[in-house]
Amino acid sequence: MEKIDRNAPCWCGSGKKYKSCHMNMDNKIHMYELQGHIVPPHHILKNAEDIRKIKESSVVNMAVLDAVGNMIGPGVSTQEIDDVVSRVTKDMGAIAAPLNYEGYPKSVCTSINEVVCHGIPDPNVILKEGDIVNVDVSTILDGYFSDSSRMYMIGEVSPEKRKLVEVTKECCDLGVTMVKPWNFLGDMADVIHRHALENGFNVVIDIGGHGVGFEFHEEPFVSYVTKPGTEMLMVPGMVFTIEPMINMGTSAVTIDKEDGWTVRTADGKPSAQWEYTVAVTEDGCEILTR
Fold this sequence. Notes:
Helix content: 25-40%
Shape: globular
Number of strands: 15
Largest sheet: 4 strands, antiparallel
Radius of gyration: 20 Å
């Protein structure tokens, strides 16, 4: 960790002297670093103003998902969902982050049944009774990013699909209880992984969550299959997503060779995902999106 003069302005941009701002926290982080733990670099930590701006972006993000919830149902095409996301995002003065991101062609991801994530909206893909669908919305407002997704059950779904959707949300809620300063990302991952396994499901290994706020995807990569006491130390100012992808069958996935985006379960069984964005605070965490 870089040595900073105690009387110098704090690296966080608060305008305070380092000794009265982040010096004590940095000293504690350095202790963990000396013990061999992974610790967050300064550049991913957010100050109070950053958090405020991410919250403003999050208001738009969740309003977009609310709008989707008001129109989604049997007979709706995934392109119609994309149209709503595009319109509401624009009307609220924000930008849909997925559009043209690394070549992605739409404003939102719509992932149905066995599609794990990154399903591309299409006017020919029509939701039908019994489907489960994840709608993943990412928003930029005044340069700050927010991210969340929700599951929607279309009409009457099977008991097995309903359980998958409900358990996946329970996994996120359990994960939140482990987000607090001086815990590790592995502590959160473990409660999520165990709850999925206890209910007969499997967690996707190769795809996880991520830091968010300054960029669409930042450090750290957030796994949901790691052990307690491992992965990055959580400290105040960290902002990241909790978004485990839970499969009814095997954890293995495939990526569509034609579009290069759509991720499906390898065995064709359903998958579910909820996504929250959380900020680590001085005494726990704050949920920014869900």
